[in-house]
Amino acid sequence: MKEIKAFIRPNKIKEVISSLRREGHCCLTVFEGEGTGDYTDPGEDWPSLKLPFLHSKIYKLEIVCEDSKVAAICDIVRQNGKTGKSGDGLIYVSDVQDIFKIKNTKNDNVK
Protein backbone atom coordinates (compact mmCIF):
# COMPACT_ATOMS: atom_id res chain seq x y z
CA MET A 1 0.00 0.00 0.00
CA LYS A 2 1.07 3.58 -0.65
CA GLU A 3 0.09 7.01 0.63
CA ILE A 4 0.01 9.83 -1.89
CA LYS A 5 0.16 13.42 -0.64
CA ALA A 6 -0.44 16.09 -3.26
CA PHE A 7 -0.22 19.84 -2.67
CA ILE A 8 -2.48 21.65 -5.14
CA ARG A 9 -3.54 25.23 -5.93
CA PRO A 10 -7.02 26.14 -4.60
CA ASN A 11 -8.34 26.96 -8.07
CA LYS A 12 -7.49 23.42 -9.30
CA ILE A 13 -8.84 21.32 -6.42
CA LYS A 14 -12.33 20.71 -7.85
CA GLU A 15 -10.94 19.67 -11.20
CA VAL A 16 -8.46 17.25 -9.61
CA ILE A 17 -11.04 15.64 -7.30
CA SER A 18 -13.64 15.34 -10.08
CA SER A 19 -11.11 13.65 -12.34
CA LEU A 20 -10.00 11.26 -9.59
CA ARG A 21 -13.61 10.28 -8.88
CA ARG A 22 -14.39 9.84 -12.58
CA GLU A 23 -11.51 7.35 -12.80
CA GLY A 24 -12.70 5.40 -9.73
CA HIS A 25 -10.46 6.90 -7.04
CA CYS A 26 -13.12 8.03 -4.59
CA CYS A 27 -11.57 7.84 -1.16
CA LEU A 28 -9.37 10.75 -0.15
CA THR A 29 -8.90 13.41 2.47
CA VAL A 30 -8.51 17.14 1.76
CA PHE A 31 -6.87 19.75 3.99
CA GLU A 32 -6.72 23.51 3.46
CA GLY A 33 -3.42 25.15 4.35
CA GLU A 34 -0.66 27.61 3.66
CA GLY A 35 2.89 26.94 2.56
CA THR A 36 6.14 28.75 1.98
CA GLY A 37 8.98 27.92 -0.34
CA ASP A 38 11.09 28.77 -3.33
CA TYR A 39 8.29 27.91 -5.73
CA THR A 40 5.65 30.45 -4.79
CA ASP A 41 4.13 32.55 -7.55
CA PRO A 42 4.48 36.25 -6.64
CA GLY A 43 1.55 37.11 -8.90
CA GLU A 44 -0.80 34.76 -7.05
CA ASP A 45 0.49 34.67 -3.47
CA TRP A 46 -0.43 37.00 -0.65
CA PRO A 47 0.57 37.45 2.98
CA SER A 48 -1.49 35.96 5.77
CA LEU A 49 -2.64 37.74 8.89
CA LYS A 50 -1.64 34.66 10.91
CA LEU A 51 1.65 34.12 9.07
CA PRO A 52 2.90 37.53 7.90
CA PHE A 53 5.44 36.35 5.34
CA LEU A 54 5.09 35.37 1.70
CA HIS A 55 3.21 32.13 1.31
CA SER A 56 0.82 30.22 -0.92
CA LYS A 57 -2.69 29.02 -0.20
CA ILE A 58 -2.78 25.30 -0.88
CA TYR A 59 -4.93 22.22 -0.56
CA LYS A 60 -3.39 18.91 0.43
CA LEU A 61 -4.93 15.67 -0.82
CA GLU A 62 -4.10 12.42 0.94
CA ILE A 63 -4.94 9.11 -0.72
CA VAL A 64 -4.03 5.59 0.43
CA CYS A 65 -4.09 3.10 -2.43
CA GLU A 66 -2.69 -0.12 -3.81
CA ASP A 67 0.81 0.13 -5.30
CA SER A 68 -0.58 -0.57 -8.78
CA LYS A 69 -2.73 2.61 -8.70
CA VAL A 70 0.01 5.11 -7.80
CA ALA A 71 1.08 6.02 -11.33
CA ALA A 72 -2.51 6.56 -12.53
CA ILE A 73 -3.41 8.74 -9.53
CA CYS A 74 -0.24 10.83 -9.87
CA ASP A 75 -0.91 11.31 -13.60
CA ILE A 76 -4.47 12.49 -12.91
CA VAL A 77 -3.24 14.97 -10.28
CA ARG A 78 -0.50 16.31 -12.60
CA GLN A 79 -2.75 16.63 -15.65
CA ASN A 80 -5.58 18.35 -13.80
CA GLY A 81 -3.63 20.30 -11.19
CA LYS A 82 -1.12 22.16 -13.31
CA THR A 83 -1.30 25.74 -14.51
CA GLY A 84 2.21 25.82 -15.93
CA LYS A 85 3.33 28.42 -13.40
CA SER A 86 5.80 28.18 -10.56
CA GLY A 87 4.12 26.92 -7.41
CA ASP A 88 1.76 24.39 -9.02
CA GLY A 89 2.49 21.94 -6.20
CA LEU A 90 4.22 18.71 -5.29
CA ILE A 91 3.32 15.04 -4.98
CA TYR A 92 4.87 12.72 -2.38
CA VAL A 93 4.49 8.94 -2.33
CA SER A 94 5.26 6.95 0.83
CA ASP A 95 4.97 3.33 1.93
CA VAL A 96 2.12 2.37 4.27
CA GLN A 97 3.08 -0.47 6.61
CA ASP A 98 -0.26 -1.08 8.34
CA ILE A 99 -3.80 0.26 8.44
CA PHE A 100 -6.01 -0.21 11.50
CA LYS A 101 -9.68 0.69 11.83
CA ILE A 102 -10.31 2.74 14.94
CA LYS A 103 -13.65 1.03 15.65
CA ASN A 104 -12.06 -2.43 15.92
CA THR A 105 -11.32 -3.61 19.45
CA LYS A 106 -8.57 -5.94 18.24
CA ASN A 107 -5.36 -4.93 16.52
CA ASP A 108 -6.43 -6.63 13.30
CA ASN A 109 -5.09 -4.62 10.42
CA VAL A 110 -7.15 -3.81 7.36
CA LYS A 111 -6.19 -5.55 4.13
UniProtKB/TrEMBL annotation:
Annotated GO CC locations: cytosol
GO molecular function: ATP binding; enzyme regulator activity
Single biological process term from Gene Ontology: regulation of nitrogen utilization
SUPFAM superfamilies xrefs: GlnB-like
Pfam families found in the cross-reference section: P-II (PF00543)
PROSITE patterns assigned: PII_GLNB_DOM
Domain of life of the native organism: Bacteria
Protein name: Nitrogen regulatory protein P-II family
Organism: Salinimicrobium marinum
